[in-house]
Amino acid sequence: MVENSQEQKQEQQPERSLSEHFGSSEPSQHPSRWNACWEEEYTPWDRGGPSMALADLLPFLPPANTLGSQKKPLTALVPGCGRGHDVLLLSSFGFDTVGLDVSERAMAEARKNAESIELDEVYPLKGEVQSRGTYKFLVGDFFGQDWVTESGVDGGKFDLIFDYTFGCALPPSARPAWAQRYKDLLAPNARLVCLEFPSTKSPEEPGPPWAMNPHTYVAHLGHPGEEVVTDEHGGVLKDKVEPPREDGLMRLLHTKPPRTHAAGYKDGQVVDCISIWCHTAAA
Prior knowledge:
Protein name: Thiol methyltransferase
Pfam families: TPMT
InterPro entries: SAM-dependent_MTases_sf, TPMT
Largest sheet: 7 strands, mixed
Strand order of the largest sheet: 3-2-1-4-5-9-6
Structural class: alpha/beta
Radius of gyration: 18 Å
Keywords: Methyltransferase, Phosphoprotein, S-adenosyl-L-methionine, Transferase
Number of strands: 9
Number of helices: 9
Organism: Apiospora saccharicola
Strand content: 15-25%
Order of helices and strands: HHHHEHEHEHEHEHEEEE
């Protein structure tokens, strides 16, 4: 298991929970609460580097701009990107990548992080990728349209979307809209990659992060925009999960990655899962 300095730094901070910071605030107040965390330099979700699970998976997905390819580079999106570690990782694989966050301060930190990364060459080009993809950091509401227009991505459809500590940062009531938004943002043959976290947390525990076990993803992504059957805490009832709709998203892969962030381990074992999704019609 690999731990990095940012995770160690967060562990050294005085104990404080995000759920206490958010309390009983309304979802409309959440953007200002996230920004306050950045202003106070309290970012326990930041891992200090890119996702090792994503880095290990990407070589098995189609490369974005391989040597001799005449095709346009593929596009990628990382919502809730924070300091942009995974944005820079995807760029190193050749994806033209958009990092999105609701916090102005977070995007300032991401741009600063990108400058230091370029100087230190922490993210060398991967595999047969001939040139680094572009990257852009945008401030905006995931459910809004302004940032999509600003991204310049053709048709507002992305070839790859990566979700890590984003779905779980949204209150359970937002999950139908979260799933619908992914469906709308995915290009016809695109892939959604989810590093599922926190997969072992109980729905009874307050968030953020709210519990996101594997069948929660299946229930919502398979039925974008629908209310699914949950308990009184918003936890999805596993025995009530339905097969995906014809116009929903289908899970192509579900596995435990060989390595992940320190937060994804329990008793020395990986508890994070990684999943790949596509439009059901494209499966």
